[in-house]
Specification:
Blueprint: H1 2-8, H2 25-40, H3 56-85, H4 88-93, H5 97-132, H6 134-142, H7 161-177, H8 180-208, H9 223-242, H10 244-277
Helix pairs in contact: 1-3, 2-8, 2-9, 3-5, 6-7, 8-9, 8-10, 9-10
């Protein structure tokens, strides 16, 4: 699609630049990053399958780095293609930039073909999500942090079918309850605190437990982990500043998980002590 826009489009003669009229400061840039983080989400999904990967100490870092770099290059090229056929003002006000750009080159027929391609790409992304995301609930159930029944494995196919069904049911409920923009914002703000905590755990564990074997090397340690955590905190605080109500609701839902977690652990200890007595 990008090649077609570059070759066949009526190229926009205006330079693509951020002028004072369109500049909303660092806070506006931080808010725009919410959608960007949703578009790039999935870079960390491969780690959920680390238990099923050969030589994960090498395969996972290489796969993560290569995947992020390739996707970043593709996104930059595609966006440059959009700007090559559409004026900046139209891109800013459009909710369907890809469809608008393709219509310049191929009309309504090209827009229909693009919609079909988007559907196919969505199914491929959904396939990867179905493979990775249910394994989080599956792992929680295996370690006693969730209902044990969620850790069931299909006797024939060897898949965590209960966890997959639970994940699909929750997804359907969310889609019926909220719009795409609301879901995207809630998803990013719901996931990003845990990504920040996971990266913050790297220096903490190295300071507190230096004797633990570490099969994964952290590039740029400790500078990159610290910068990642600081940028993540600024990103979330900015979202709270720009969209206080929706962001506060997202964070409140996350915080509700703490008493649930503590209660669950306490009940697990009580059940363990009762089994020991019998």
């Amino acid at each position: 699609m990008a090649a077609a826009l570059f070759l066949l489009g009526r190229h926009n003669p205006a330079p693509v630049a951020v002028t004072a009229e369109h500049w909303h400061g660092l806070s506006g840039l931080g808010l725009a990053l919410v959608s960007v983080m949703f578009a790039y989400d999935g870079w960390n999904g491969f780690t959920a399958m680390s238990g099923e990967v050969r030589n994960p100490g090498r395969t996972i870092p290489v796969s993560l780095a290569a995947g992020v770099i390739i996707v970043a290059i593709l996104y930059v090229v595609v966006n440059l293609a959009y700007f090559s056929v559409l004026p900046v003002a139209l891109v800013q006000g459009s909710n369907q930039v890809a469809a608008d750009a393709v219509s310049v080159v191929a009309g309504r027929a090209g827009t229909s073909v693009l919609a079909l391609l988007v559907m196919l790409a969505t199914f491929s992304s959904l396939n990867a999500t179905v493979i990775t995301d249910p394994r989080i609930c599956f792992a929680m159930a295996q370690t006693g942090l969730f209902f044990r029944s969620v850790a069931r494995v299909h006797p024939r196919w060897g898949t965590p079918y209960t966890a997959i069904g639970l994940n699909a049911s929750l997804a359907c409920a969310y889609v019926l309850a909220r719009s795409f923009d609301q879901l995207a914002e809630a998803f990013v703000l719901g996931v990003w605190p845990f990504l920040a905590l996971a990266v913050a755990a790297v220096p903490v564990l190295r300071w507190t437990r230096p004797e633990v074997p570490r099969p994964y090397r952290t590039a740029g340690y400790p500078v990159l982990p610290i910068l990642f955590v600081l940028a993540s905190i600024a990103f979330m605080l900015n979202a709270l500043y720009r969209h206080p109500v929706s962001t506060a609701i997202s964070f409140a839902v996350l915080l509700l998980g703490l008493p649930v977690y503590w209660t669950w652990r306490k009940l697990a200890v009580m059940r363990g002590s009762l089994r020991g007595r019998t």
